[in-house]
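To: structure subgroup
Subject: Chain for Friday's discussion

All,

I'm putting the inputs and outputs inline so they're searchable in the archive.
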Amino acid sequence: MLRSFGATVTAESRIDPTVRIWAPWNLTIGRNSSIGHHVDVYNVAPISIGDNATVSQYSYLCAASHDLADPTMKLTTSPIRIEHAAWVCAKAFVGPGVTVHEGAVVGACGVVTKDVPEWTIVAGNPAHEIRKREINA
């Protein structure tokens, strides 16, 4: 269904039926990736989710804001990238222009307004580095 509205979605992508996607044509999701229930994808600008990445339940991916210096508060947009093997945990907020780099984790309820370095775990409001992520062999 999403493909018919311009989304780039693989057969191996898993998107819960309760996900809200503002502009399907601005969504790309890779192989073996998932978007959990009740995630809000406000993709006024493109949002891309790499392979083997997860966006957990109730998260908010917000690719737009407003110019606070403009008296009319003009809409501003900037793409979001969730790279390969990254995880955006439950109820997290990812703001405009943010890249969650490969293997990074945004902890539950984290508020991310700046890029998250690869293989780093961040949490809090505003999100700050907790530690490096290591994968056991």
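Points worth raising on Friday:
The two ends are 38 Å apart (CA to CA).
The domain at 3-126 is CATH 2.160.10.10 (UDP N-Acetylglucosamine Acyltransferase; domain 1).

D.
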